[in-house]
Amino acid sequence: MHPFQYQRADSADQAVAAVAKTPGATFIAGGTSHVDLMKEDVHHPSLLVDVSALPLKQIAAFEGGVRIGAGVSNTAAAYHPDIQAKYAAVSEALLAGASVQIRNMASMAGNPLQRTRCPYFRDPAQACNKREPGSGCAAIGGYNHVHALFGASAACVATHPSDLAVALAALDARVQTLGPRGPRTIAFPELHRLPGNTPHLDTVLEHGELITAIDLPAFAGRSHYLKVRERASYAYALVSCAVALEMDGPTIRRARVALGGVAHKPWRVGPAEALLAGQLPTEQLFQAAAKAAFADAQPLEHNAYKIPMGRNLLVRALLETSGLQPLQGPAGTAFAASVGGVAGQLATPR
Ligand SMILES: Cc1cc2nc3c(=O)[nH]c(=O)nc-3n(C[C@H](O)[C@H](O)[C@H](O)COP(=O)(O)OP(=O)(O)OC[C@H]3O[C@@H](n4cnc5c(N)ncnc54)[C@H](O)[C@@H]3O)c2cc1C
Prior knowledge:
Elements: E1 5-8, H1 12-20, E2 25-28, H2 34-39, E3 47-50, E4 59-62, E5 65-69, H3 74-78, H4 81-86, H5 88-95, H6 100-105, H7 163-170, E6 174-179, E7 182-187, H8 188-191, E8 210-216, E9 222-229, E10 237-248, E11 251-260, E12 267-268, H9 270-276, H10 283-293, H11 306-322, H12 342-346
Parallel strand pairs: 1-3, 2-3
Antiparallel strand pairs: 4-5, 5-8, 6-7, 6-8, 9-10, 10-11, 11-12
Helix pairs in contact: 5-7, 9-10, 10-11
Flavin-adenine dinucleotide (FAD) binds near residues 51, 105 and 234.
């Protein structure tokens, strides 16, 4: 490991000032992602500014919705009664991620800011434009089964790994920050970037910009998160989806759909949302929406299986969210991808 300085911040202002003035400095919260990257020789910060003791640990009602402090643990958010009752997709996404021990340490800001699980990014012996700009992308000609279907570039085909981020994108969450130039609000779907020619930049945050809270706006519908992964626990999404439906009597008034495991950022699918709005929920409609959601997918050599898997997962999420089909299993259920198992069925074209 490379030598680095460590500093514990007493206030948000102090944390922002410390990182902003120091090249190579970064925040650390639970450390469950960042410390791994340091041990793996991927990140070499000059200074770690620890924000875990800042008073950013409240979950409170805010403008008809809920404000979640950046330092709230993933566990505390997942089991908060208001989040479970009104924003089920957030709770389900959190419980579908990592392990109990990691969720106890992981923070609400750190989770969506974790970096890709692309194995080439995490192996300093491999070319990776995200880790080392200009070095190339070993994933493009390599074993790219966990990589992107949408929004990739000639420089990077990595996907974003956070489950929580997918639910926050579907629910139009807002990110509150404090930066060197003061506070600002970022719509969650705008937080992460597509790779383009600068895949080393994951988000629109500036150097030294601290997330202070995540706001979930008022929402009177039902939401749901489903994820398919290679093991029944402790594994990242191959494909996931978050669905938020607001009803007007029996009609879908508004639908929001975000996909995970398929792009460099949570992938909102406007065409599917437009198709669902104003319609009566039926399995046929959901199949059409799922088809529309993946119509522009651009598979790589090894990841075309994600298209039928994602379509089938989305149909199931819509059926369960609309009540046409009962929820299968507890919140955050995931399925082992054994041949003939549920993921096997999900990977079969319908
Ligand atoms: C074995 C394992 C399995 C996992 N499985 C899953 C999974 O299935 N699904 C999933 O979604 N996640 C998974 N995770 C990832 C886990 O959820 C993240 O490591 C965790 O949420 C990161 O939170 P943290 O507070 O520890 O972040 P840290 O590691 O402290 O920081 C992560 C990043 O966020 C930045 N940061 C932290 N706080 C702030 C802030 N307030 N403002 C600005 N920047 C900030 C840091 O600078 C750093 O870049 C897994 C992790 C491990 C180790």
